[in-house]
Specification:
The structure is a homodimer. Chain A is built from 21 helices and twelve strands. The first copy, chain A, has about 525 residues and is an alpha/beta fold. Chain A has two domains: about 25-305, Aldolase class I (TIM Barrel), CATH 3.20.20.70; about 320-430, Conserved carboxylase domain (Cyclin A, domain 1), CATH 1.10.472. At the A-B interface, helix 8, helix 9, helix 10, helix 21 and strand 12 of A face helix 8, helix 9, helix 10, helix 21 and strand 11 of B.
Chain lengths: ~525, ~525
């Protein structure tokens, strides 16, 4: 399907053909549409209800995307925690409504969609079940770029005869080099991956780096190694990075339809299409379908205003802190809860220091939360006066290996605080078989239907699953709100229970005489 | 100052120098900062008051910009119409606050900053006076790309020994070709321009076109012809276009500080800086200064929320209609006034047809308004049932020559409606000397101080100047509003004209004595 011409030529003018006619030999660039997963995850805290997506599916299915990312990441958690939606039902619905599309998901390797490591059998079952329910393409990553943590999931995807995509999380540090990324690409391809993803979750990937990494991987592993590039848009430069990645040979890029794009989200699908016009590359997406998809989500978007990210424009300061956009608002709320809302800048300066101490992990779920929260602790209580349990585990190797060495003093502090020993093996190797236990615990819960799918829900979200199983019969809860309703609520809260305003002083001239008047709510 | 290395090399990896060290020979790219003119013109209807800019000037002056666009365009009109600010005083203030910067303005050729053609003597006086008051760089354009209409202004700028920048308005049509743009570049350079500007006022310039045009001009006229590239951001692709223009040899690009950027505005300055890191190009702007400028305008921006453009994300449909972002909201309001708010899409489809009838003019002030309003008329009353006076003039040649032939039937209709004959000469050649008349009319007005500057104000805005001269002594009027004040007003209007609320009780302290007061709608 993909014609690989002019791969190594970089940017060049189209071929001219007599009398002003232009004939262009183009290489087709695949596009993964993100709106059904990472688009709304990044812009509206993953709150979009399935019912607000279904009407766009026919257009999405026919638009000509390489794949449709629609599951995984934080959607599973959001479904059961906020939306009373069964994530498996959502997957089956997409399978039905997108019959001609490759369904794609984001899978956190050995963490699956949860926040701890699972034993291999649980990983295998998750992949089997999701494949059975309709998943096609698995983008598998590990937050530390520890390839041992994606090995099992990738093997399971291959066994299920689905598309296994090995992921390189892009980050920058004194230790991260192009050669290092090429080595990781080699390691992932050695696992039998069908493709690679260069994942830029914080919009740090600048054009030159995008070009150099994609080029180096293609040069080293061969041009038939498929490379997908995923960028967020937060810093404003990454559409250029996609252009450069394409020039260097990237095969597929990720975008989100314009009405759910930009800010901490992604580059707009339509802009990518237009960017490539007249170049030796094209997307072959259907403009009319894109317009319908855009219009659909432009209507949906205002319903979720209350969940929208505060970042709307670009934010280039994150090149220094390297903190993904979504995390900054998280930290702000942590700080405010501690009455330290004014100390965000200190925390942003602390994050790179904590990251260095931890051996320069990429910052992506869950490492971003772990490093970010420890930075908040350091600012509020003094450096490493207290370690979070997760940060201690990170320092002790329980999340896997980092590229850099971890600070020995803090490793020792973690050892003393937790009583756990540092490890160097693959964390999952220390986990005893747990499937049977998970089955018996899950099936004992009210409302659990006894399927492997329910057991997996319990396995990944043991705190949320019991409530979800119980309330599931009530059916999906759409947390979006009619914009008119939102305006009315805001008004009511402003005139009634809003913030207390101090007294206001007026000078009032009444019947020709000046009075000093103070007014406050009684 | 600008080192022209690797000009024709396009994009390439930096030069490697042993053991992982990277040494890069870079070409310095100049940057024109737009925030003081086109930035707020595009995003907040040109309403920003001078007092909201002064505190940023020290940082702007020291940041390392090639130039600072701060005058011209719609700012002159906005100053006297909305802000009770003398535009000449604004210019002198910038001259004082930006002593190390090149001040830049946008000048509509023979139209100056008004909406009709002026006799050459008026053009000369305007350029002399603005040069005297501190202007350095004149970007001179004509809405129809009729070089005859910029000739006089460019000659005047050269006589004043200032920087004359000839402008190519970028547009697309069956008749617009790269060779045509090169020919226009040649014509402009023949006038003695110091540089050229490729002006993309509607964000239509895609990366390949940007590359091809800049490359073709440099190839034809020589690499020492300085090319500046001005793009809006509305379609989301033009930062990539700037990258490609730079690769093709562009010398200076225009951006606006991130807190006043994107949407119908421009690409963010900081994103441009980051985009170029590691490439063979660099900006040498001062990051710390940029951060201060950004923070300053991030604080100012909320004051102008009421004037903000409705377009916040990207809008790629304008590739079809070619209508600049600012104009769409204009049309919407025209249509609403006629009770036809639902017919915008019809109008957007009509615009390209009207443009074809008119010989494919670029759409930029004033041609965008002229074509847009005629499209509204056509939709509301039937095609060309009524011609606006301005559209009739456009058809008859009174704005100058267009690239394409104008529709003979409509030219005839214009002739019959107006009684005017079609012309082919330079429109200003038909205007008799008018300076003395303008002087006597202006100086007769109350409050006119008799300076040439005041006469020019009257010449360009004869309807607005009388009121302005009278009210000028009251001093500048800042139309920005404290965000808290805006919220309070919204609340007041909501509790007033909105749903009826019950009585509200206040405790009112009057001259030291407390009263319990109940207020309700009478």
């Amino acid at each position: 399907m993909v014609i690989r011409l002019s791969l190594a030529l970089g940017f060049r003018a189209p071929v001219r053909k007599g009398e002003g006619m232009t004939e262009t030999t183009t290489r087709e660039i695949g596009v993964t549409e993100l709106v059904l997963r990472d688009g709304h995850q990044s812009l509206m805290a993953t709150r979009m209800a399935l019912e607000d997506m279904v009407d766009a599916c026919a257009d999405i299915d026919a638009a000509g995307y390489w794949s449709v990312e629609c599951w995984g990441g934080a959607t599973y958690d959001a479904c059961i925690r906020f939306l009373n939606e069964d994530p498996w039902e959502r997957l089956r619905t997409f399978r039905e409504l997108l019959p001609h599309s490759r369904l794609q998901m984001l899978l956190r390797g050995q963490n699956l969609l949860g926040y701890r490591h699972y034993e291999d059998d649980v990983v295998n079952r998750f992949v089997e079940k999701s494949a059975e329910n309709g998943m096609d393409v698995y983008r598998v990553f590990d937050a530390l770029n520890d390839v041992r943590n994606v090995r099992q999931a990738i093997a399971a995807v291959r066994r299920a005869d689905k598309h296994a995509q090995g992921t390189i999380c892009y980050t920058e540090s004194p230790l991260h080099t192009i050669e290092g990324y090429v080595q990781m690409a080699r390691d992932l391809m050695d696992l039998g991956c069908d493709s690679l993803c260069l994942k830029d979750m914080a919009a740090l990937l600048k054009p030159q780096a995008a070009y150099d990494i994609v080029k180096a991987i293609k040069d080293d592993l061969g041009t038939d190694v498929r490379i997908h590039v995923h960028c967020h848009a937060t810093t404003g430069v990454t559409l250029v990075s996609l252009m450069k990645a394409i020039e260097a040979g990237a095969d597929v890029v990720d975008t989100s339809i314009s009405s759910i794009s930009l800010g901490p989200g992604h580059n707009p699908t339509e802009s990518l299409v237009e960017m490539l016009r007249g170049t030796p590359y094209s997307t072959d997406l259907d403009d009319a379908r894109l317009l319908s998809i855009k219009d659909h989500f432009a209507t949906v978007r205002p319903k979720y205003t209350q969940f929208m990210s505060a970042i709307t424009g670009v934010e280039t300061e994150i090149f220094k802190s390297q903190i993904p956009g979504g995390m900054i608002s998280n930290m702000e709320s942590q700080l405010r809860q501690q009455g330290a809302g004014d100390r965000l800048r200190e925390v942003l300066l602390e994050v790179p220091r904590v990251r260095a101490v931890a051996g320069y992990p990429p910052l992506v779920t869950p490492s971003s939360q772990i490093v970010g929260t420890q930075a908040v602790f350091n600012v509020l209580m003094g450096p490493y006066k207290a370690l979070t349990a997760e940060f201690a585990d990170l320092m002790l190797g329980y999340y896997g290996a980092t590229l850099g060495e971890r600070d020995a003093t803090i490793v020792e502090a973690a050892r003393q605080q937790t009583g756990k020993e540092p490890i160097t093996e693959r964390p999952a190797d220390l986990i005893p078989p747990e499937w049977d236990r998970l089955v018996s615990e899950a099936t004992a819960l009210e409302g659990c239907d006894g399927t492997d799918e329910d057991v997996l829900t319990y396995a990944m979200f043991p705190g949320v699953a019991p409530g979800f199983f119980k309330e599931r019969p009530d059916g999906p809860k759409n947390v979006g709100k009619d914009p008119a309703e939102v305006a009315a609520e805001r008004l009511a809260s402003a005139s009634g229970g809003g913030p207390v305003h101090g007294p206001i002083r007026y000078s009032v001239n009444m019947d020709g005489k000046a009075h000093s008047v103070t007014v406050e709510r009684a």
